Amino acid sequence: MFHRLIRTLDLYDGLRLPVQIGREELLLIHEDGATWLVQRRCPHGEFPLERASVRGEVLRCPGHGLEFSLSSGQCRGAQGYCLKRYRIDYDGPWIGVSDL
Ligand code: FES
To answer: Which residue ranges does the record assign to the Rieske domain (predicted)?
Structure first.
C-alpha cells in the first residue's frame, strides 16, 4: 500500500517532516537536493531527529552527537547502532512509502 507523504513540489532544503504510519514513526529529510526517509528516533537514545543536522550523506543526532550514514544507516564511531532507512516511492506528484 502506497502512503503519501508530500508532493515533490513541496520539498525544500532543510525539510524535516515527521510522519506516523500505523505504529511506525518516520522522518522525511530533504537536504542539498536529496531526499531520505528514516526512522524518526535515534537508535542510540531515541532522541527525535527533526533537529538533526545533515551534511552530504551524514546525519548528526543532536542528542549525543553520533553520526549516521544516510546511505547505509551505519553509525560512525559507535558500533551496534544502525539508522533504519526506508525506500521512497513515487506516485505521480507524490512522494511516499510502500514498504514498511
Ligand atoms: S540519542 Fe542520538 S546520539 Fe544519543
So the answer is: 3-97
Q: What is the pLDDT of residue 99?
A: 78
d(C-alpha 81, C-alpha 79), whole Å = 6
Centre of ligand 1 to C-alpha 28, Å, is 18
- Tell me the β-bridge partners of 27: 18, 38
Q: Is the CB of 61 under 6 A from ligand 1?
A: yes
Domain count, the chain: 1
Task: Work out the mean pLDDT of the chain and round it to a whole number.
Answer: 96
Cell 515527521, residue located: 18
* Domain region containing 80: 3-97
Question: Rounded to whole angstroms, how far apart are CA atoms 46 and 40?
Answer: 8
